[in-house]
Amino acid sequence: MGRPKSPIWIDLLEPTEQERECAAGITGLRVPERSDIVNLALSSRIRTDDDAMYLSIPYFADTNNGHAAQPVGIVVTNHVLMTLRFAESPAFDLANESCEHQRWESSADVLATLIEAIVNLGAQRMEDVSAELKKLSDRVFTPERLGTPVLRAIMLDVGRLEGMQARNRSSMLGVQRIVSFVRAKKLDWISDSVEIRLRVVEHDLRTLDEFDDQLTNKLQFLLDATLGFISTDQNHVMKVLTVTSVATIPPVILAGIWGMNFKNMPELDWPWGYPMALAAIVISMILPVWFFKWRGWWSGD
């Protein structure tokens, strides 16, 4: 029995062993194992084997739902593109839907469409992170005084956004390596139009890399600012406690003196000794507080 006619794109989503054998029989290509895709050696992740290019993205996550990154393998020849993935992907769905609007001319055309979809959605995710950062920044830098619980919640949001951006970064880095590798090969079956599209994608990836640096710096700045506000809030509490403790020292001293049980204490014979002692204790508390307010050490509290 002859080999069936090969389609232009075979997309394997968590394939069974039978599906892997069927794809290998249709394309005549070796379907990579998951261990091959996640191999740390760059030579194992991006290489050529005869007329086929074996490409992979070890950490690929194109959603902001917090799911762990999954590897993606890509095998491309001059007649077929085969992809191997282990999770649902909006980018793959978007690339698949594009065939309804334009006719694919070659496997390289499909590869360029898939890469463009990944990059476009990656850019959208970065825009989403940037928009959320703007909202968090408005929450942090407000004239109202925020308490530590609110600031802690903001720090958790910053950590969540950093995780999202880290997943975006890993995905875009894998795509950038693939685009650079494919363009460097300069294969004859990659048309000029596809080459132009890949060049545009490579430029977009460099722009996104600069945008990623800006977002990373913004995240770090927002985290530092939140920690600074928490420290300031704690300093306010310590300042109030310090003023309170200083204001209570004179009354404690006066109460200690007048509370001594000596027989010959002149204050015991004073008709107004008790109210005078109370007044002296109150005045001794008011004077330190007034002094702190006068020097501006208690302003804002």
UniProtKB/TrEMBL annotation:
Main subcellular localisation: membrane
Signal peptide: none
Superkingdom of source: Bacteria
Any one GO molecular function term: cobalt ion transmembrane transporter activity
InterPro entries xrefs: CorA_cytoplasmic_dom, CorA_TM1_TM2, MgTranspt_CorA/ZnTranspt_ZntB
Protein location: Cell membrane
Any one annotated GO CC term: plasma membrane
Keyword DNA-binding recorded: no
Topological relation to the membrane, as annotated: Multi-pass membrane protein
Keyword DNA repair on entry: no
Catalytic activity: Mg(2+)(in) = Mg(2+)(out)
Keywords of the record: Cell inner membrane, Cell membrane, Ion transport, Magnesium, Membrane, Transmembrane, Transmembrane helix, Transport, Zinc
Family the entry assigns: Belongs to the CorA metal ion transporter (MIT) (TC 1.A.35) family.
Alphabetical list of PANTHER family matching this protein: CORA FAMILY METAL ION TRANSPORTER (EUROFUNG) (PTHR46494), ZINC TRANSPORT PROTEIN ZNTB (PTHR46494:SF3)
Listed name of the protein: Magnesium transporter
Source organism of this protein record: Luteibacter yeojuensis
Source organism phylogeny: Bacteria, Pseudomonadati, Pseudomonadota, Gammaproteobacteria, Lysobacterales
